[in-house]
Amino acid sequence: MRKESIVGIVGNETIIGSGVSVKGNLTSEHDIIVDGTISGNIKTKGSLSVGVNANIKGNLIGRDVTVAGQIEGDVKAANHVSIQETGRVNGNIASGSIAISTGGVFIGTSIMTSTPSELQPPADSPDAAPEPEAD
Q: Are 20 and 37 in contact (CB under 8 A)?
């Protein structure tokens, strides 16, 4: 019997809940949902959802990125970035497309590209994103 079926875990997503604080980088092959505080870079091959209670200081890379919370750092998405009415991005965005809802805030520059490979660093190189400064 697989461990997932014993404890009831069926998904592969990573969830950082409200009230949780993480210092350090987060990397995943699957979707990530953040509703807590992260000081560090986040990289996933899946989708990245930044909840309304989230506060992130670091750079984000994902397939699709949805922002309802606060981000201080750059965002790269192979497909799409969506800033919801409660979302705020203070940094640059590189994506295939971007949508900003009324009330959403974006302070930075955007680069639109139809080539997702431009958004991913080479496999043999470390992320170009520097570590965020510790508070």
A: yes
Q: Is the dihedral of CA 95, 85, 22, 10 positive or negative?
A: negative
Q: Hey, what are 117's tokens?
A: 């490979």
60, β-bridge pairs: 42, 75
Q: Using one digit for the tens of pLDDT, what is the confidence trace for 81-116?
A: 999 999 999 999 999 999 999 999 999 999 988 755
Distance between CA 106 and CA 83 in Å, rounded?
A: 8
Please identify which residue in the block is written with the tokens 């660093």: 121
Write the DSSP symbol of residue 18: T
The candidate with the shortest Cα–Cα distance to 99, out of 120, 124, 73, 68, is: 68
Residue type, 31: D
